[in-house]
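Hi team,

Filling in the usual template for the complex we talked about on Friday. All components are listed, including any nucleic acid strands or ligand strings, so the model treats them as one assembly.

SUBMITTER: L.P.
PURPOSE: interface mapping
COMPONENTS: two
RESIDUES: 820
SEQUENCES:
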Amino acid sequence: MMRTAADIRRMNSFAVVRAIHANGGASRRELVDITGLSFATVAAICTKLLELGVIAEVARKRAPAGRPTATLSLNPEHGFLLGVDIAETYVHVEAFDAALEPISSTQYDIDTHERSPDQVVERVKSAIAAERARHQGRALLGVGVSAPGQVDQVGGTSVFAPNWDWHDVPLRDMLADSVDAPLFLDNPLKSLAIAEMWAHPERRGQDFVVLNLGTGVGAGIAIGGRVVRGRMNSAGEWGHMVIVADGRACRCGSRGCVEAYVGAPGILQTLREAYPDSPLLHGDDQTATIAALAAAADDGDPAALDVIERTSHYLGIATASIVNLLNPDIVLLGSWVAELLGKHLLDRARTHLQAHALAVPMAAVAFELQHPRGNSVSLGSATFALEGYLDSVPDGTTDPETTPRRRTVG
Amino acid sequence: MMRTAADIRRMNSFAVVRAIHANGGASRRELVDITGLSFATVAAICTKLLELGVIAEVARKRAPAGRPTATLSLNPEHGFLLGVDIAETYVHVEAFDAALEPISSTQYDIDTHERSPDQVVERVKSAIAAERARHQGRALLGVGVSAPGQVDQVGGTSVFAPNWDWHDVPLRDMLADSVDAPLFLDNPLKSLAIAEMWAHPERRGQDFVVLNLGTGVGAGIAIGGRVVRGRMNSAGEWGHMVIVADGRACRCGSRGCVEAYVGAPGILQTLREAYPDSPLLHGDDQTATIAALAAAADDGDPAALDVIERTSHYLGIATASIVNLLNPDIVLLGSWVAELLGKHLLDRARTHLQAHALAVPMAAVAFELQHPRGNSVSLGSATFALEGYLDSVPDGTTDPETTPRRRTVG
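RESULT (copied from the run log):
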């Protein structure tokens, strides 16, 4: 889609908020330097954000020559956001202040036999209520919710969650009566990408990929400063790219998908096939088994290292495919499997990536672990809510600048 | 990369030229409706284009009530462009008028033992000279050149052409003395994408992929109205995504790549492995063998149909990977293998695509043969030259509109 003038205004507001956030406060003049926007645009946006209380003047200092300049900061007292990560194995609800700093969180496990929409929604409502109760008296600016699988973010529907066999579940409507604030639904891939973009302003000038390594696997992709959504918001299904034609059955119905090898159940399958009596196996408990695998690898256990090497092989091949196709600046490994196993997977997978990527894109790409503050999917979901909140607020600029005049720094 | 104000101006000029071209002429008022730009912006761009002679007033009619309105058309007499397609097996130089209509072309084969940079450049120079001679007296506005493999379009260098083992060949400098016009170098993937965008204005609002089926295979990708280039302009290497882990050796040095199965030499290998004595085999002559395969398939030859089915299997899987990853509006099959074999491949590949794509992106995607006018890579290369020419010309708009205010139609 082409950018509209409204898009540009929104992006400029975001750029100012992001710059203030990333720099821990800034003067209007510094914001001009950081964002590349004109002083008039920065000033108009700041005026509106001050009126709303989203930002505050925290200090005023006299420049060596001339008028005193005010330092602007995001106002942590203004209100808070909730970011909800509905994963296959847990529900994580995290509160963030308007500066997107994590404040508190509540997490409940989801049992394998409690996966109906009603059961999961009840869990989410309980966790939201717990976080609401902790922050009584503060304004709830918005709630962002990430649900696994394919999500219609406009209609607020979980179109298809393969692990739960959910079809067309109206999640936003089901949750609406538990929150008195705008609710934004999307999936973890988009949440991871937007979280990365807000946390690292330099990402706006980069093409990047966050590989989501969990029960399901996928890719949050941003190109040219925008999250790639595709026609139906289902872009990013890297987990369902085929790497082994006619290979392992995948829960999507196809065969040989990345997810069948690199998703947590795929890793369990590799372990079970190679070492059926392994003490690392905790039945179908993915979290316990992956954690046991990580602990055993720390101790140099040969079976654990073998399973990690096999997984790295597939991860490296699948990463090479996306590196060759998109030639990105950076590919990050994120989500809970990356948190538990990432340090063992990264260098091994890079070896296989190098063997399968073309020289030019390989030389250009950084391949790293994502280091989020708090739960990155919750952070990304909260970010969507903050974007929605800022979106609801007109700013004083009538003549939107299309973009930073020069590349964003800092 | 973010769009700059200059980007926006350029896009608006392109939008006007495209709209005039696609509609076979239009009034300023119609251009406002088609492009979504303001009347003032359209008028300023038209004034500049008229001064330059890129467009002309071809008719003037009186509206039912009010002032006469002029119909503007691209001016075919203004000058011409050359689009050069350097492929692994031929050099094709095509002349286009400023309305991007093909006028004439010259094609030379490249023998397998004439593949040094000097030898290929001599072929290209001869073909350019032949086309130059045909259009003496007309201004040459620019030359676009597509070279296979990875190209540094800024530096004008063929960074790596795997089939020829070219490394860092300064193609633009080597060709510069044969043309007295700006020369733009890129690769066929970007040429196919830009050709598709200019030929079909509705593509600007779509995410689309043109699969380049030739000796090498790759993907021209456009997202949000822009060609995806990646960090080093090497995006689109779909041919080097792995679909068979540890499968066939690929000329890139990896194994199991799409290209090893779907590229013309891969199809020959499939034929040779299954039917080593097949009369369809014409040694290493890819064009003759693929043409023989197509003719035999027309006659219902079981061996030919079997090879096509095997190729379709891999093509369908590899298309599913890109459909799952990007959720595009449309995937097109283009280039010479698609021209020869496309009608036999398309429906068979669609069956395998359906078996491997997720339901949501599958339902959203159109999967079709590309139907270019003339050689689509030459057209795309010429389009880069036209873009460069328009780029060299300032327009009268000081306050660029960021975008069409509504979706482009027509």
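MY TAKE: Chain B touches chain A through 74 residues (CB under 8 Å). The domain at 5-77 of chain B is CATH 1.10.10.10 (Arc Repressor Mutant, subunit A).

Thanks, L.
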